[in-house]
What does this fold into?
Amino acid sequence: MQSGKQVLSAWQVQMLLGMTAVWGLNWPVMKYAVMHYPPLSFRFFCIVLGIVAMWGLSRVMSVSLAVPRALWPRLMMLTLPNMIGWHVFCVLAVKELTSGRAAILGYTMPVWTVLFGLLFKHPVDRRGWLALSMAMVAVVLLLSAEFQAIAGSPLGVVLMLVAAACWGLGTTLIRQYPLPVHPLAFTHFMMWPTLLAMGALAVGLEGLSLATLPTTWPQLWPIVYNALGVFAFAQVGWFSLAKTLPPVVSSLSVMVIPVVGVMSGALWLGEAPHWPDFLALAFILGAMVVVLMPKKAPR
It folds into this structure.
C-alpha cells in the first residue's frame, strides 16, 4: 500500500494492526481503571511499570537507551505535547466520559495533525482531504447519538479535544524534527519527564501516597495492560511510524481505533452502540482505503 511514493511494508502494516487492537481495547480498559482508582495516579503507575518494561525490552533487543545530551532540548519539546499533554488530558477526560465517546473525540487527532501540518507547509493532496473528510463524517455520526449526554459533560469534551490537539501537534513535530535515535530510546527518554509531571499532579490533586498504592486486582491489571501493551508496544510503534510515514497516512491508518473502542466498550461496559456507529465504521474504512490504496502508475 502507498500514498504518493510512500509504500507500507509488511512490518508497518502489522504494527498498525497491532496498535489498532491494543489502543482500541484500551479505551474501555482505561474507563474501567478510573472507576476503581484515581485517573492521574493510575497513569503514574502505568508509566512506572512502562519504564521498567521498556528497559527489559531494550535488553532483549540489544538496543541502547542512551540519548546524546545535545538532543535533550528537542526531545523535551516533543515530550510536552506527545506525552505530557496527551496522557494528562486524556486520562482526566476518560473519567468524565464513556470510553467510546472519549475514543471518538480523541481521534479527531488527524484533523489537528493536518491543521498543524499546514503551519509547516506539509502538503495534503485531494485524496488526503477526501479521506480526512470521510473520517470526520464518521466522528460526527458516532457523536450524533451522544449530543445530549455530551452537553452534560462539557469538561470531559474539552479535555479530550485538548488531548487530541496535543497528539496532533506532537505527531506534526515528530515529522518536522526527526531524531537519529531508536524509537525505544526516544520513547523511554520521554517517559521520565512525563512520570515527574504525572506524579506531581497525582500527589497535588489526588493525594497520592504510600497509603494509596494500588493493591486490588481491578486496580492492578489495567496498569499492567497499559505498561506492556500501550507503552512498551503501541507507543514505541507509533513514534516509529510517525517518523517514517506521511502525517495523513500515519493518522488515518489508525482511525479504526475508535470503532474498536466503541464496540469493545459496548460489549464489556454495556455502552450500547447505535446505528450511526455502524455507518461510521463504513466511512472510517472508506477513508483508510482512499489514503492507503496504491495510486495508478503514470503512463
